Amino acid sequence: MLAFRTQVMMIAIMIAAIICIINMLRKKKLDFKFGLGWLFVAVCILVLAAFPVLLDKIAYLAGIASPVNMLFFLGFALTVVLIFALSIAVSRLSDRVKKLSQEIAIIRRDMYDRVTELEMK
Amino acid sequence: MKKLVIIPAFNEEGNLEKTIQDIRENAPGFDYVIVNDCSTDETLAMCRRHGFSYLNLPINLGIGGAVQTGYRYAYYHGYDIAVQFDGDGQHDAGYLEEMARVLRKTGSDMVIGSRFIEKEGFQSSAIRRMGIRYFTVLIRCLTGRKITDPTSGMRMVNRRLLKKFTEEYPKDYPEPESVVTIISEKFRVSEMPVVMRKREEGTSSISLRQSAYYMIKVSFAMVIARMKK
Question: Are B58 and A105 in contact (CB < 8 Å)?
Answer without folding.
Answer: yes
